[in-house]
Amino acid sequence: MKEIRILLICFLMCLVTGISLNMIFEKKQKKIGVVDAVRLFDKFNMKTEMEAKAKVKLQLLNGQVDSIGNQLNLAKATQDEAATKKLAYAYDYIRSELDKEYTRSNREINEQVWKRLNPAVEAFGKQEKLHVIIGANGMGSVLYNDDYYDLTDKLIEYVNKKYEEGS
Amino acid sequence: MKKVVSRSLFLLILGTLCSCRKELKAPEYVKYLQDERYGFRKVVKIEGWEYAFQYKPAEMIMLIESKGVKNDSIKNKRMKELEGTAWFNISFRLSSGKVSSMRYNLSSIEDYDKRYDYFLNHAKKHIRLVYGGTDTLFPMSYLFENNYNLTPQETMIVGFRLPGEMRTPEQNMQLIYEDEIFGNGIIKALFKKSDLKRIPELIY
To answer: Whole-model pTM above 0.95?
Structure first.
């Protein structure tokens, strides 16, 4: 009977020690992650694909700007005033269209990519049991961090997998 | 030595059992394919929107189409027609389900007509399938299911012809839809080769 009691006490002591150690270990585990927001954005596949798509349209407009620009220079060189006036107007118009398209596509890419990244980052944080993810972007919000807290590569892999597989 | 042999045999039997395809009756078969856990239905949620991509094997299409039809020759004919193709449903809805996506954020009937025309005639240009990671396929068939605003969910049905002499899909299939209307960007769904191999066998 006495032996059983000693065994029981030993078992309880081991259990208490185990739980305490587990709690200490859990507290020591990192709960904060640092992510380079710029790199995350740049390496997100959706951003690369949207940029490539927008580039086609922008290159087309740019070609038109160059073409009208050359005609305008020719008209100026030949001192054809009527043509210069007409082409200068066309040049300004197409130039402003190019600027507008550039701004529009940039805004669209930014909005749509962050719309997709934000919930993915949240899901990643929950999966990794992180309490805080700090976005470092080179603007001074994080002055220094070593690799221990840096989760950028892991997060890039996670968001791209989620994007490609549609989960 | 005996132990090694018996363990190897056990593993072999286990492996054989695992690789066997499940056999399911019609209602369970459809339920299995519509269950997100098995990889034939993918749901992508984007800030208040839900896009569901459903892969439909030929048997599933035949089951849905031939409700009550017991004529085997009709069924066989339909199965033959579906050979060498891959079919999907792409559905989208607002997560709240309160407003039909066709009416979302519209200010005039002209805008509604434009949106409707887009889904009837132009959306197919923004759908493609990457087969086996290398072949990009464009829809051979497209249909926008008109639900007359009775449900808040809209569905596009899209079919692709598989490359080569392929009878059924055997490689990874990545369905890509570029949302040009609601500003949700490029949406993808991957249907894995490993899941395709596990499609249950249908018992009639």
So the answer is: no
